[in-house]
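Course assignment 3, question 2. Fill in each field.
Student: A.L.
Task: Predict the tertiary structure for the chain below.
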Amino acid sequence: MGRLIAGDLQQHEATIERGLQTMGQVAHALRTIRDDRLFEEAGYTSWAAYLERRWQRTDRWARLIVEGDAVVSQVAEHLPADVPPPTRLADAQALAGLPPEQAADIWEEAVEEAGPTPPKRVVQEKRAAKVAAAAQAPATTVAPEQVAVVRDGLKRALPGDIAAIFVEAAEFKPVLEMVEQMEAAIVGLAEKQCGRAINLAELRRVLAELERGLTMAKPHTECAKCRRKVNRDCLVCHGRGWVTKTLYKATRCEGDDKWLLGN
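Answer field:
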């Protein structure tokens, strides 16, 4: 039985080693290795240890791949047969948070403009345009399924003006991934002869602080003090109209939560 499992592990690792060909293949391989605990056959005591030592990656990277595959799979189900489906993590990130039907419409428009593998920028522009169009059109002329719903950190649907900001906030994800990729690259370098002088613990601390700083700066929800009447002198949002998760938690009160949940 052990030989069979070891063979399975090698097969799934070969899929990953082929250069992360398609997100679907890699996501399936990662899920199987994790859920069946195949990594134990290679002597790793935990999933996290396996990812770090075998692939110089983190659990967050693996979750992005698996979750991204779920997004593109749902989108693919709503595409015409002649439209190539999304296959990359960048595609999933650009379409994340939308109902599959809306995401499929956006992807189809991006493919029509830029070909079968449109750049992430094009997909984001199509998404932002759809959000802006929905905000400008009279409510009576826009069918619910045509509106690209954008949600904040509290899972609330947002109105057009503020929604555009939260669409832009998707840019935080690739930047955070760069930090993660940098950590993986540093770990790989530290394992080489030339990297023996690298203080891995200190660099990881710096990168963790950088990741924390970016995460804490990301828009979380609307400012419940301004309540869509942005006040440049607001001591909470400082005229932005939105707050970070840290600010939301530090300044929330019953009245604010009642307004947020009611809008």
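Instructor remarks: The chain has twelve helices and two strands. Strands lie at 219-222, 242-244.
Grade: pending
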